[in-house]
């Protein structure tokens, strides 16, 4: 006998929004410290965070790394037009490449928007000529180099 048990959608209240805001600023903030800020117990905070993780509200806890500090000095955005029948195949191949930091299917039948980081221009050129351009189905590639980062989303801020 199979179970039709389903965890109900989590209602996000003002306390959860405050917890998310604190975690967004520093995901290493302890349950105890969050509890002190919100006048709640560590156990209550832990239960709320665990609930948000289980419901997929919090997808993961991560570390934001400054690419330039570890040798990646070229940051570029690419708009890749792909023949529709090859879209999924191209997306899978690009998503598996370590240089690709984000990849989105944009409006239009076959547009991919991608961000990549490279140690230098030669590495980016090698990525383009050896990996991206030869992919079956790629019709055109438009690229822009990042000059200055003023804001980076890094998750949704409430």
From TrEMBL:
Cellular component terms (Gene Ontology): cytosol
HTH asnC-type domain mapped to chain residues: 12-73
Residue stretches in coiled coil: none
Keywords: DNA-binding, Transcription, Transcription regulation
InterPro entries: ArsR-like_HTH, AsnC-type_HTH_dom, Dimeric_a/b-barrel, Tscrpt_reg_AsnC-like, Tscrpt_reg_AsnC/Lrp_C, WH-like_DNA-bd_sf, WH_DNA-bd_sf
Keyword Transcription: yes
GO biological process: one example: response to amino acid
Keyword match Nucleotide-binding: no
SUPFAM superfamilies: Dimeric alpha+beta barrel, Winged helix' DNA-binding domain
GO molecular function: sequence-specific DNA binding
Family matches, as Pfam families: AsnC_trans_reg (PF01037), HTH_AsnC-type (PF13404)
Stated name of the protein: AsnC family transcriptional regulator
Species of origin: Neobacillus cucumis
């Amino acid at each position: 006998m199979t179970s039709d048990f389903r965890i109900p959608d989590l209602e996000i209240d003002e306390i959860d929004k405050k917890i998310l805001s604190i975690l967004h600023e520093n995901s290493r903030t302890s349950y105890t410290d969050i509890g002190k800020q919100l006048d709640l117990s560590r156990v209550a905070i832990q239960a709320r965070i665990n609930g948000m993780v289980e419901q997929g509200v919090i997808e993961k806890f991560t570390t934001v790394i400054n690419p330039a500090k570890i040798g990646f000095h070229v940051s570029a955005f690419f708009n890749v037009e792909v023949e529709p029948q090859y879209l999924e195949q191209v997306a899978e191949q690009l998503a598996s490449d370590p240089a690709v930091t984000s990849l989105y299917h944009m409006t239009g039948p076959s547009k991919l928007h991608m961000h990549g980081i490279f140690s230098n221009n030669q590495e980016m050129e090698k990525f383009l000529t050896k990996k991206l351009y030869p992919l079956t189905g790629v019709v055109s590639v438009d690229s822009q180099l990042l000059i200055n980062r003023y804001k980076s989303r890094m998750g949704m801020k409430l």
